[in-house]
Amino acid sequence: CLLGNFSAELAGQSELIRERLAKLYLDWSSDVAAVIAEAQADGSIATKLPASDIAAFLLDAYEGALLRARVEKSGRAFDRFMMVAFTRILV
Predict the structure, then answer these.
(1) What are the φ/ψ torsions at residue 53 (nearest 5 degrees)?
(2) Which H helix or E strand runs over 69?
(3) What average pLDDT does this structure show over 79-88?
């Protein structure tokens, strides 16, 4: 993910870049939260947690899975993310 790469490489180099990356993550998380909130409203997803918390967690876990998949040169981390996200969290 381009945001993940920039975050790992550039966030510590420039306050302006760090702030812009933070805003991009916030926007991305807000978009995902809006979709989750819609699904919660129609009963497709449980309402035990706020949509914003679920969205932030999913994006954090997704970025971590991508990094680990690169290190391991394997799709296992991404497969685990998908399995947990869609069989335990988004239900």
Answers:
(1) -70, -40
(2) helix 51-72
(3) 96
